[in-house]
Model the fold of this input.
Amino acid sequence: MSIVVVGTIAYDSIYTPNAYAEDVLGGSATYFSFASSIYSKTKVIATVGEDFSDEHLNLFKKNNIDTEGINILQGKTFRWKGKYSKDLNDRTTIETQLNVLKNNKISIPESYKKCNILFLANIDTEIQIEVFSQMKKTNLNAMDTMNFWITSKLELLKKLFSIVNLLFINEDEAELLTGENNIMKCAKAISLMGPQIIVIKRGSYGALLFSKEEICSIPAYPLENVIDPTGAGDSFAGAFLGYLSKAKRININALRKALIYGNIIASFTVEDFSINKLASINKKDIQNRYLSFKKICSF
Ligand code: AMP
Done:
């Protein structure tokens, strides 16, 4: 059973304290699918413009990602420009060009409509709702969002929160959403909105998972050279759900392991711009980092 993701495929321009990358392949669905496809067949729903290169489309196919749901429309691909703070923990959006996403008509291939896990990656909340309503059968529904949509589509977002099982959210977005400034209070307030499982990401400080049974907290993998944090959250979610899709049962042990693998894969993403590092790792690289993380965290 596959994973279906709807999200953005983008051309990103990114300022980090040491470098600038222009029009590199990015987007929430991109990072998610390159990470989740390490574990499970992944099908992408996204819209790109005529300027989207064949080379990039072929990269998805080469990574065994189903691209039937990628629609090419007249116009330009979604573009995002951002700038990171000196310690890379904060970022400012300089520009968001919706381009072809302004036409938010979504067509989903029939073969996508039954899946194991549906992930509504960061994209216009209206598109997330549209995709959710067109699906025929899913076992687990998960989602992400960001401040851009929390400030502009809050009522629609609340509707979604009441129907999804799992929410991934950054700490500052959780604070914006709930009006709280304590992570425990944020999680409590979000759980009242609907999701049974909440993962709050804290950048280089790690992540926390809240379920009905337990709370689980992990640090980020310590790295000496972080090049670009873009996509860390999406690849975290991709590896988390990819790993979970292989679990026999979704219990706290499976969720804990998924959290670890999400964390490990995200640590590779940030070691280069775009999906350069993420698309080049193999199972052995992942296992080595997993073992090293296990050693670092044992007490
Ligand atoms: P992350 O660093 O995991 O939060 O995700 C970064 C990706 O989100 C970038 O590659 C951007 O193209 C994409 N992105 C930025 N702004 C938006 C937005 N408003 N909606 C959807 N995706 C976005």
